[in-house]
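Students often ask why we bother encoding 3D structure as a string. The short answer is that it lets us treat folding as translation between two languages. Here is a chain of 189 residues written in the first language.
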Amino acid sequence: MSTRITTRIHTSAISFLRLAILSSLVTAAPFLAVGQTNHHHAGPDQATSAVLVQKVRNATRAFLDVSNVPDGYGPFLGCVSGPDHGAMGVHYVNGTLVGDGKIEVSTPEALIYENSKLVGVEYIVDAATWLANNNNTPPVLEGQSFQLVGIPNRFNIPAPFFELHVWAWRHNPNGAFVDWNDHVNCEGK
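And here it is in the second language, the structure alphabet:
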């Protein structure tokens, strides 16, 4: 008899804990969705997104082939693949632009290639420099908010930085500003 009661109490306690965990997830769902939206760089609207993508295309058309990478850019870290899906490709970074504390559509800090073809760009700025010069306001480019990457990070960059990917030359099914692109891969790189 004692064993049955103990088993039922144990079963009831487990059921109660499962219910508590489930209800906390349901309560947190709206907040999780907001966090996910920020992580994916959701833009204010598709028209603004299309304008920024077109401006990036206009600024980078001359660099469609890796043999045309402009002076000052060099490969950084090889091909970057996603933690669970997609990839970014090979970044060609201009260190001078990364360190200048500015963000300009016409001069992205990184050009991103897959199989020697330009697929996108990344705008990068040191967080401390940017915040000190912009009233502690995170960067926004053509209405698109940047993501803060802290330390430690997978790139071993020793300081927090803001970044924004723009997939101007390769469609990203998850959005033009999402870090990982399921249509880019590092196979054979």
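Translate back mentally: Residues 3-44 have pLDDT under 50 and may be disordered. Keep this in mind for the problem set.
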